[in-house]
Amino acid sequence: MSPKNSLEKYHKKRDFKRTIEPEGGKKKRSKKPIFIVQKHKARNLHYDFRLEIGGVLKSWAVPKGPSLDPKVKRLAILVEDHPLEYADFEGKIPEGEYGAGSVIIWDKGTYKNVREEDGKKISMEKSFKDGYIEIELKGKKLKGSFSLIRTKIGWLLVKHKT
Ligand code: MN
Description:
Elements: H1 3-6, H2 8-12, E1 34-41, E2 45-53, E3 56-62, E4 73-82, E5 91-93, E6 101-113, E7 116-117, E8 120-121, H3 124-130, E9 132-138, E10 143-151, E11 154-159
Bound molecules: manganese (II) ion.
């Protein structure tokens, strides 16, 4: 799917005359792919974990937020793709709009795809389709290797031991 098509859901859910969120879809891919975690005080507080994959931000809502403890698996609910412009978004989504509430950037940085099979790099697009992502995060709060694994109950975000 082209990045434009994959943003259809994002656009359908929002009224850009009312929300202050970016319409986006113009920004070019970063040299180094980025990740972002936004703390979102909506009806239910959650953390939105986003990874730049294929020109958009693949996004998961993590109710309890990422954990740095390898023993803790955090449920991550896949939500609609967001435009790359969303990585800079902070502010208050007005009452009555989708996701109403305040958004702040909790952490931001670049990531490295570290998934390999038989010594061969597996693309992020394939890893996403496979439901098995292995990345190294280079943020301020989140550093080191993490996995995102699709299970029957949803995706799980887990920190690696090393
Ligand atoms: Mn959210």
